[in-house]
Amino acid sequence: VQLMESGGGSVETGGSLRLPCAISQQYKDNLCLTWFRHAPGKERERVASLDSDGTMNYSEPVKGRFTISQDNAKNTLYLQMNSLKAEDTGTYFCGATLGGYSNYQMEWWGQGTLVRISH
After folding, report:
1. CA distances from 104 to 33, 76, 83, 112 (A)
2. pLDDT tens for each residue of 27-70
3. Cα–Cα separations (whole angstroms), residue 102 to 64, 75, 82, 85
4. Cα separation, 99 vs 84, whole angstroms
5. What is the mean pLDDT of the chain?
């Protein structure tokens, strides 16, 4: 499975950004797809997940602000980020696993895309 994120950039506080992650075709119907972020000096954090059965999960800091989705052909995973805050700054990674939401260890990773939120 190959994953490739894009869409990062600099946005002002309160702004919005959408991150796409292109997904190769292998196993695409069986993957749990997850957005992680890694901020400087902090642990990598799971932000949002979309399991193969359509179940979505969000971390508390982003609930109500971020939305994870996938196009109908399952070629692209998205993370829509609204009402952005300074603490949302970090490198965002797309990850995939065949082990479902309970598996925190991804088998496949994208290269990451940097998001900077400025005041």
Report:
1. 11, 21, 27, 17
2. 888 999 999 999 989 999 999 999 999 999 999 999 999 999 99
3. 22, 23, 26, 28
4. 31
5. 95
- Structural tokens at position 49: 């997940």
Q: How many CB atoms lie within 10 A of CB 67?
A: 15
Do 62 and 48 touch, CB atoms closer than 8 A? yes
> Which residues pair with residue 37 across a beta bridge?
45, 92
Cα angle value 2/57/43 (rounded, 5°): 70
Cβ contacts of 68 within 8 Å, gap of 6 or more: 33, 35, 48, 49, 50, 56, 58, 77, 78, 79, 80
38, 91 in Cβ contact below 8 A?
yes
